[in-house]
Specification:
By secondary structure, this protein is an all-alpha fold. It has one domain. Helix content is about 70%, strand content about 0%. α1 packs across α2. The longest helix has 26 residues. The protein is globular.
Length: about 100
C-alpha cells in the first residue's frame, strides 16, 4: 500500500474523533459575533490540520516536536503532508532545520 493509501485509510479510521476534536477546539473560541459560516470554515481548517498531523505522526513517523515546529510553530497542513508523501516520505532537512529556527 502506498503512502497516499495509508494516509487516506488513517484519516478514515480516525475521522470521527478528528472531527469531534476539531468542533470542540473551534467551539471554545466562538464569540457572540461568530457566524455559522465562520465557525464551519474554522472547523474545516482544524479538521485539515488534525488530519495532517495524524498522517505525519502515524504514517510518516514524524516526531511530535517536528510536527509542532513545522511552519514556524503553526503545525502541518495538507499541502505539507502531500509534499512529503510525493517525495516518498523524505523530509527535506533544510525545511526541517528552517522550521526549527536553525539556519545554515
Amino acid at each position: 500500500m502506498d503512502l497516499n493509501e495509508q494516509a487516506i485509510n488513517a484519516v478514515k479510521e480516525y475521522f470521527e474523533s478528528i472531527a469531534q476534536n476539531a468542533v470542540d477546539i473551534v467551539h471554545e473560541s466562538v464569540g457572540s459575533d461568530t457566524t455559522f459560516a465562520e465557525f464551519m470554515e474554522a472547523v474545516n481548517q482544524k479538521v485539515n490540520q488534525l488530519s495532517s498531523e495524524l498522517v505525519a505522526s502515524e504514517i510518516l513517523n514524524m516526531s511530535a516536536k517536528t510536527i509542532e515546529n513545522y511552519n514556524a510553530g503553526t503545525g502541518m497542513d495538507v499541502d505539507d503532508v502531500q509534499e512529503i508523501i510525493d517525495s516518498d516520505g523524505e523530509v527535506d532537512q533544510d525545511e526541517e532545520d528552517e522550521d526549527d529556527g536553525i539556519r545554515f
